[in-house]
Amino acid sequence: MERRFYVLKQVMEITGFSRAHLYNENSRGKLVLKKAGGRTVVMVEDFERWVESFDHVGPPSKAAA
Predict the structure, then answer these.
(1) Which of 4, 27, 38, 56 has minimal Cβ neighbours within 10 Å of its Cβ?
(2) pLDDT at residue 21, as a whole number
(3) Nearest to residue 47, comparing CAs of 2, 12, 1?
(4) How many CB atoms lie within 10 A of CB 4?
């Protein structure tokens, strides 16, 4: 079965970001957090969209030129 969401703790472990940072990203409208029962979750699609929105550092790749 394919994963549909991550619990917040998993997102923290994957990214190294703190809980406060993730909630701040949610407040800024950058990361969508949802409640499932008493747990905060991030849908896989929302997580991937958020990661893709990160700024690039350094020169652009040749594929982007």
Answers:
(1) 38
(2) 98
(3) 12
(4) 9
pLDDT at 62: 74
Strand order across the 5-7 sheet: 5-7, 39-43, 34-36
Per residue in 9-63, pLDDT (tens digit) is 999 999 999 999 999 999 999 999 999 999 999 999 999 999 999 998 888 777 6
pLDDT of residue 56: 84
CA–CA dist 60, 65 (Å, integer): 7
Q: Look at the block and give the residue holding tokens 């701040």.
A: 24
- The CA dihedral of 39, 45, 46, 52, to the nearest 10 degrees, is 140
